[in-house]
Design brief:
Layout: E1 2-7, H1 10-16, E2 22-28, H2 31-34, H3 40-52, E3 56-63, H4 71-77, H5 79-84, E4 87-91, H6 94-101, E5 108-110, E6 112-122, E7 125-128, H7 146-149, H8 176-186
Parallel strand pairs: 2-3, 2-4, 4-5
Antiparallel strand pairs: 1-6, 6-7
The protein binds iron/sulfur cluster (2 copies).
The site of one iron/sulfur cluster has 9 residues, from loops.
């Protein structure tokens, strides 16, 4: 499972760095390296571009996993260069940006947009499998999430636009509900197609969601 990101346009990064001329860059050795958005090569590429722009890059690092507890240690090891900067440019998903913000007082600027949590089905090809809705229905849908596999996120079977197994919104994509039907059929569980799924009540979800593991 990976946090899927894409790099913001350089113009957007430039705009966020307006008035901040000394930059420390942080990359992530896990997801952002895998997606080629914030690994060593991308961090060094960003360093060159910022220097061409006239910014001073006081230092850079690629933290093994920017969202975990070791991040604090990795930042401490770069204390000098971080203290010489007036902002941190983070090339990780938003979880890493949050983690780093929790340790650093100066501005923490994201260089990436976080798109979704995805699985890699073949090298370099990631797809979204879960929208983290908090009320999982995979047990009734043969392990295929209707919120992510169906373009309309329908919970109770296909819309009228499904055509020869393809989706009306994008005919290059398989209809998620056809996939669910086929897999339920193969499992001998087609009766589940008739099971009503109540609408998800997103408004009732208190945010931010938290959990304490005892
Ligand atoms: S129903 Fe879909 S979005 Fe919700 S938890 Fe299950 S896999 Fe995730
Ligand atoms: S065609 Fe299938 S995947 Fe596309 S919106 Fe309708 S039910 Fe969902």
């Amino acid at each position: 499972m990976k946090s899927i990101t894409k790099q913001k346009t350089f113009d957007e990064i430039k705009e966020q760095l307006d008035g901040l001329d000394r930059v420390f860059i942080v990359g992530c050795g896990t997801c952002a390296t895998m997606t080629k958005t914030g690994g060593r090569d991308e961090v060094l590429g960003m360093k060159d571009r910022l220097q061409e722009l006239g910014k001073m890059v006081t230092g850079w690092t690629v933290i093994p996993t920017a969202c975990d507890e070791m991040t604090e240690v990795a930042l401490r090891e770069n204390n000098g260069a971080i203290n010489s900067s007036n902002c941190i440019l983070v090339m990780s998903c938003a979880l890493g940006v949050h983690k780093i913000s929790s340790y650093i007082e100066r501005p923490v600027i994201p260089a990436l947009d976080t798109l979704f949590i995805g699985l890699e089905d073949e090298p370099g090809n990631f797809h979204e499998v879960c929208a983290q809705c908090g009320q999982c229905v995979l047990g009734q849908t043969a392990g295929i999430c209707p919120l992510t596999a169906c373009h309309k996120g329908l919970l109770n079977g296909p819309c009228g636009g499904t055509n020869k197994g393809k989706c009306e919104v994008d005919i290059t994509k398989d209809c998620g509900w056809t996939l669910i039907y086929q897999r339920l059929e193969a499992q001998g569980r087609l009766d589940l197609m008739r099971k009503y799924q109540p609408p998800k009540n997103y408004q009732a979800t208190p945010r931010p969601r938290t959990i304490k593991i005892a």
